[in-house]
Design a protein that fits this description.
185 residues; alpha/beta; Dihydrofolate Reductase, subunit A; eight-stranded mixed beta sheet; two-stranded antiparallel sheet; 32% strand; binds NADP nicotinamide-adenine-dinucleotide phosphate
Length: 185
């Protein structure tokens, strides 16, 4: 097991008006931000909400898809899980670092277990239909790293300021011990 095994991180990007999604995809088109996401999660086990999973063209192996649909068929290398907790346990069992990649409902359920939150703040408002959950409160987290870049946004054809934060939560909750009577939960 690598040194980052058992560490749970979340990663996402949010606009100045709190949006994360539009029509099942991102409200913006910033290739370099997407590349940063892909580079950061490369080689990790991923926890993904069902709607986000369905929006992805490529899903890496060791991805755990959270859905209440017990008959859901997932792509090769992916596993359906019935809860965020089950998904995090199974992702940790791969021995890889674990990244929670959203969407909103998955961040809302998983953030208390996360050691780090890699959050890009896109300092411009975008129209969206999915918001970063208000219940995810990063105010008590420590900013471990921060850098800022202006990146091209292709829908508006402008440069937007992107602030890349890595937040650390010092005492995340431990995952609950699974209930032996509810296999897989
Ligand atoms: N900006 C970003 O960083 C970012 C990151 C990720 C996603 N997004 C965007 O966010 C949007 C999707 O987010 P979303 O919140 O609507 O959907 P989502 O979280 O990706 O998926 C929601 C689905 O996950 C399952 N689910 C959620 N909570 C569950 C729980 N506690 N137990 C079991 N299953 C659970 C349910 O699937 P079933 O209905 O199958 O039961 C639910 O319908 C898209 O627009 C996407 O592009 C943005």
């Amino acid at each position: 097991m690598g040194k980052d095994a058992l560490l749970i991180s979340a990663i996402g990007a949010v606009s100045a008006n709190g949006m994360i999604g539009l029509d099942g995809w991102l409200p913006w088109d910033i290739p370099e931000e997407l590349a940063y996401f892909e580079k950061t999660v490369a080689g990790a086990a991923l926890l993904i909400g069902r709607l986000t999973y369905e929006s992805m063209d490529v899903v890496p192996e060791d991805s755990f898809i959270v859905s209440r649909q017990s008959d859901m068929v997932v792509r090769e290398g992916c596993t359906r899980v019935a809860s965020v907790e089950e998904g995090l346990r199974r992702a940790q069992a791969t021995g890889k670092p674990v990244f929670v990649i959203g969407g909103a409902s998955i961040y809302a359920a998983a953030w208390k277990y996360c050691h780090r939150f890699w959050l890009t703040r896109i300092e411009q408002a975008f129209h969206g239909d999915s918001s970063f959950p208000e219940t995810v409160d990063l105010s008590g987290w420590v900013v471990e790293r921060e850098h800022c870049r202006y990146l091209r946004e292709r829908k508006t054809d402008t440069d937007v300021m992107c602030r890349f934060f890595v937040y650390r939560q010092n005492n995340p909750l431990s995952l609950p011990v699974p209930d032996c009577n509810s296999f897989g939960a």
